[in-house]
Amino acid sequence: MFSSIRRSISRKFMVAVMATTFTAVFVSGLANLAYDIEDFRTGVLEELTSQADILAQVSIAALEFEDKPSAEATLGRLQARPSVQSAAIYRADGSLFVTYTGREQSQLLAPPGRPSAQAHIIDGNVMHIFRPIKRGSEKLGTIYLRSAYPLDARIERGLKMFGAALALSLLVAGLVAAWLQSAVTRPVKAMTGAVRELIAQRDFSKRVNKTTDDETGMLVDAFNTMLSEIGQHAAKLEQSNASLTHEVEERTRVERAMSDLNLSLEERIAARSLELQRANEQLHHAQKMEAIGQLTGGVAHDFNNVLQVIAGNLQLLAMTLPDNAEAQRRLSTAKFATERGAKLSSQLLAFARRQPLQPAPTNLGRVLRDMDDMLRRALGESVEVETAVTGGLWNTLVDPNQLENVVLNLAINARDAMKGHGKLTLELGNAMLDDHYAAVEPEVVAGQYVLLAISDTGCGMAPEVLARAFEPFFTTKREGEGTGLGLSMAFGFVKQSSGHIKIYSEVGSGTTIKIYLPRSHSAEEQAFDMTAGEVVGGSETVLVVEDDLAVQATAVDMLSQLGYRVLKADNGDAAAIILNEHKDIDMLFTDVVMPGSVRSPELARLAKSLHPGISVLFTSGYTRNAIVHGGRLDPGVELISKPYRGEDLARKIRHVFANTRQVERMRQDSADVAGRVAVDAQSLRLLVVEDDPDNRSLLQEILTMLGHRVTAVGSGEDGLQAFHPGLFDALVTDLNLPGISGLALADALCKAQPGLRVVIASGVGRAEGGPGAHGYASLTKPYRVDELEEILRGVAA
């Protein structure tokens, strides 16, 4: 009976373990197999769809110009993908344009005669993909891909792996169950033998209810017999001793826990209170800085409008009194005051994080080298300047012009703190702010930064001064020695540049300001100086949209003095009516922030839809988020900030006109050249450098139609990388590039390849030492293709 009961428990134990293991592995295996099949289908579909979309984008030009060799070459690149069995490009009417069949594929796998309306079709072990080829909303054709889809092999492999995993799991479960069975039943059998001996002595009197007839039931019978022999007094004594011991131990444990809690509770309360106090101070400081920023941003906006009226009228008045020396002297003094006001407004906007930045990849080592002479003149001979730059310095994404202002202001603050005598140290290096630092400092994101540290040997700052150092107009200097905006401007600029600024100072030991700017992995760019070039006007029609009537009148007078025909509107709604009624408007010159239902970006889009060739120039003293996002101008937006000078406005308008008209001229010439290709023209290898994407694309297209081999890039730095001596016959470049200028690029390439012919185009006149001064051919935007073609024929000759 005993052996049969033991075997019954063992069998139950073994069956339970094996059944549980089998069910878990079987269900999870089937689920994993189903997920793997779906993931495989989705992966193959997404990969082929992405490949088809890429081929569709690349094939747009070939399909538009019926360039079958180019399209076949594009599909020929699919040889690198053996899984693709065949491919095709269809025209918009569904007719077959070009086809492709893999090297090892049969002609039976040729593409279908017409594209299917379905995006993809799975046919057994083959997947068919159909994707539209579009330019904007216009459908130009369809791309087709046929690829192997080895689902059967995938399922077979999954089933084999599932079967192997199931078998291995059951084997391991069986071994574990056997081990556990042995470990559990061995002590039970030992206890049963001991209980049998006690039953034979009959020393027990107390009974325990029996619930089963297996080993547990036998154990209960043995204990019942044993307990029946135990005396009542011994049982009570043992119970009393156990209860007393437990009570003493429990009381001791509770007393020890209470003591530990009392010791740590005070520490936790103090630490939590300090943490809450620090968080409350940071929140209060952030709210205060945000409120001050909103106030200063609004003040700067109105201040810039006032300055624009004053500065504009001073310039107009100077033009009306050219022979009055006394008036010119007074006007010059007034102009200087407006420039100081403009600088003050710029500092307010910088603190408020409302200044439109134009960040570019920048090497701060070069910035400090370029500022060396200026810093020494500003600080004087009694201040020693030392610059230390770490090797392998990273580039950073920052507005270099605004950064120069920050460095200069901080250096002047340091000079004043040192009373004109001491040492100023500027250090540059790479830095890493980790997660721990970011958790402690508000608004800091962990990552890689470029560190600029500016240290002085001045008097230092007391803690109460240090706490208010970034507040605008807070200063410890005497009246008339400073505005108190230097540090606040630096604070706003660094925060708007996604950076971090920290001050370390001690009374009598000097001050160190550390500025962390985010690392950039791009090559350095240098902005073109728009203050260079001729100041000329024109006869075009300009629509001025400005809600401040004084600013509007000043802008109208400036433009009229330059010869432009001027229309004016007080808001976007009135401007929309004028755009609809007049058909000869050449430029929309609009303020960014205006009242009314039509905002400035919407007005610009309306102007371009009604007048496709119109140029758009924005102006503002406070851009908000209309054309600036993340503190940066939106791509392709042209902006002149208030207050602006008349000559700056004149150059900016001619620059915008030149780019707009060059695009239109290129589009017209592209249509003309498409119908004629000179059969006797000699093919040239041309490097084209143009930052405007529309101009670059059209120029490359036209020159290719003329039979030349063209490599087109968007910056001087890219031109330097693409150029190799002997690889090109001529360089065609814009003068005003975002990085190094076209003139500097031409000089560098001609030094590397003497005899290289150069054509330089400009839309803002010729800068000093510009095209022609180095023997380079010159073109003025907008130029005709015939002019460029004539110059290139001279190169070929």
UniProtKB/TrEMBL annotation:
Cellular component GO terms held in the UniProt record: membrane
Domain Histidine kinase: 298-521
Residue ranges of every copy of the Response regulatory domain listed in the record: 541-657, 685-796
Transmembrane parts of this sequence: 13-35
Residues carrying 4-aspartylphosphate: 591, 734
Stretches assigned to the HAMP domain: 182-235
GO molecular function: phosphorelay sensor kinase activity
Name of this chain's protein: histidine kinase
PROSITE patterns xrefs: HAMP, HIS_KIN, RESPONSE_REGULATORY
Keywords on record: Kinase, Membrane, Phosphoprotein, Transferase, Transmembrane, Transmembrane helix
Lineage of source species: Bacteria, Pseudomonadati, Pseudomonadota, Betaproteobacteria, Burkholderiales
Domain of life: Bacteria
Keyword Phosphoprotein: yes
Catalytic activity: ATP + protein L-histidine = ADP + protein N-phospho-L-histidine
Enzyme Commission numbers on file: 2.7.13.3
Subcellular location: Membrane
Protein's UniProt keywords contain Nucleotide-binding: no
